[in-house]
């Protein structure tokens, strides 16, 4: 199973980038899809997860600003990030079925 994340980069405070992560390979069924992040010098932390459009979870720090969604036809999970703050600067990792990790995409929030 391979996970390819994209969408990171340098973003100004208040920006709204969207991260994508495509899963490919031998996946019979994808249930859990999630995003985690790791800031410099800190441990990796949970950001958001989705089982279905009616079953999502968010870390308190991003609730109301980030939106997770998925496209089951392409095995893709998205993270719409709005109202970005410098403290959101981190490498963002996707995770599938609570087992497979993507390579991470760096988001730097700075003016």
Distance between the termini: 37 Å
Instruction: Choose one word for the global shape.
Output: globular
Helix and strand element order: EEEEEEEEEEE
What would you report as the Rg, rounded to the nearest angstrom? 13 Å
The percent of residues in helical segments reads under 10%
Q: Into which percentage range does the β-strand content fall?
A: over 45%
Strand elements, count: 11
Largest sheet: 7 strands, mixed
Task: Please report the number of helical segments.
Answer: 0
Uncertain regions: pLDDT < 50 for 5+ in a row? none
User: What is the overall pLDDT average?
Assistant: 95
Structural category is mainly beta
Could you explain how this protein is built, in words?
The structure is a single chain. This protein is an all-beta fold. 0% of the residues lie in helices and 53% in strands. The chain is built from no helices and 11 strands. The strands form 2 sheets. Strands 2, 4, 5, 6, 9, 10 and 11 form a 7-stranded mixed sheet that branches. It has a 4-stranded antiparallel sheet with strand order 1-3-8-7, with no helix packed on it. A hairpin with a 3-residue loop joins strand 9 and strand 10. The chain is globular and about 45 Å long. The protein starts with a strand and ends with a strand.
Features:
111 residues, mainly beta, 7-stranded mixed sheet, 4-stranded antiparallel sheet
Characterize this entry briefly.
By secondary structure, this protein is mainly β. It is 0% helix and 53% strand.
List strands and helices in order, with pairings:
Layout (H helix, E strand, L loop, with lengths): L1 E5 L2 E3 L6 E7 L8 E6 L6 E8 L2 E4 L7 E6 L4 E6 L8 E7 L3 E2 L3 E5 L2
Parallel strand pairs: 2-11
Antiparallel strand pairs: 1-3, 3-8, 4-5, 4-9, 5-6, 7-8, 9-10, 9-11
